[in-house]
Design brief:
This protein has 328 residues and is an alpha/beta fold. It has 2 domains: 120 residues, ornithine cyclodeaminase, domain 1, CATH 3.30.1780; 176 residues, Rossmann fold (3-Layer(aba) Sandwich). The strands form 2 sheets. Strands 9-8-7-10-11-14-12-13 form an 8-stranded parallel β-sheet. Strands 2-3-4-5-6-1-15 form a 7-stranded mixed β-sheet. α2 packs across α3 and α3 crosses α12.
């Protein structure tokens, strides 16, 4: 038995790039995914802290695994991804999942956008200026041509810094604006990447253009609100990475149901989109949405890519530990 290897967050940053992550996720979603191989997350709550677990046995790839991450009472978070060889059962790798979490989220959104957006140059509105907002604009710019980006964040210095940074990176106008409405009006693609903890949505459906594509990732728990019920109501097609979690555990969809918005017939899965099963519906849809809460299959697919690249580049660290094996 080989000793397990550790891949740090710094190593993952060095070896991962958007095209390869998007392609590995395309492969992961090219086969129908069910709750059997990619079940909903579990969460345990304490007094001011919580721990979440995501597990998957992907139909493609070498590894199965889990991601465990917890919010401490001091409001810090660590992420651990464990990779098991699907054939031998060995624990092969331990991965710092901090960077992978934001990268796989943005790469998954970019995969969806590549299949849902048009081919013409796009104007983009970004709500948020944190890690996920940065990653999403970078990832989506790798699959569509962006002609202009509007950036809103409640903190003026943050949005101005973000806009200046991406004006240089993308070589297109990126403009810091003073309100969410200014950010998204007249935009082809709207990215919601906020912390969604204000108690009220930041994106209103009445602001959207008739052909807008919304990418919403901020609300992943019942108390989080990023988009209003009207945004869901005016969306003709809503592609989801985890339909049941989105419907029952996110504040946005809980609020929409309470407001009487019927959306069940609009919800479709990301693997359906990737396999081409939605081409006819996409052709007739006006406003569309990609709604993501993240899933273990995304974590394991990107972690496997990072693990293999780190090994190839001598960046994986052999751990002087051995796990005792029990025969089932």
């Amino acid at each position: 038995m080989n000793l397990p290897l550790f891949v740090s967050a710094d190593a993952t940053e060095q070896v991962l790039n958007w095209p390869d992550m998007i392609e590995c996720l395309r492969m992961a979603y090219s086969i129908e995914l069910s709750d059997v191989c990619n079940p909903p997350r579990t969460a345990a709550y304490g007094d001011g802290n919580w721990l979440r677990t995501l597990t998957a046995v992907p139909p493609v790839g070498r590894f199965m695994g889990s991601k465990v991450f917890g919010l401490s009472r001091e409001k810090s978070v660590n992420y651990l991804i464990t990779l098991f060889d699907q054939d031998s059962g060995e624990i092969v790798g331990l991965i710092d999942g901090n960077e992978i979490t934001s990268l796989r989220t943005a790469a998954t959104s970019a995969l969806a956008v590549s299949l849902m957006a048009g081919t013409q140059p796009m104007t983009v509105g970004v709500l948020g200026s944190g890690t996920e907002a940065h990653a999403h604009l970078a990832a989506i710019s790798s699959v569509v041509e962006i002609s202009k980006a509007n950036i809103f964040s409640p903190t003026q210095a943050n949005r101005e810094r973000f806009a200046a940074n991406y004006s240089e990176k993308l070589n297109v106008p990126c403009i810091a604006v003073g309100s969410p409405r200014e950010a998204v009006e007249a935009c082809d693609i709207v990215i919601g990447a906020t912390n969604a903890m204000t108690g009220s949505p930041i994106l209103l459906g009445e602001w959207l253009t008739p052909q807008a594509l919304v990418v919403a990732i901020g609300s992943t728990m019942s108390k989080q609100h990023e988009i209003d019920p009207r945004t869901i109501e005016v969306s003709d097609l809503i592609v989801c990475d985890m339909i049941e979690e989105i419907v029952h555990e996110t504040g946005d969809f809980i609020a929409a149901r309470e407001a009487g918005v019927a959306f069940e017939n609009k919800l479709v899965s990301l693997d359906e989109l990737v396999r081409g099963d939605l081409n006819d519906r996409l052709a007739t849809a006006s406003r569309t949405m990609f709604k993501s809460v993240g899933s273990a299959v995304q974590d394991i697919a990107v972690a496997e890519l990072a693990f293999n690249r780190a090994v190839d580049n001598g960046l994986a660290i052999e751990l002087p530990i051995e796990f005792r094996v029990k025969q089932a």
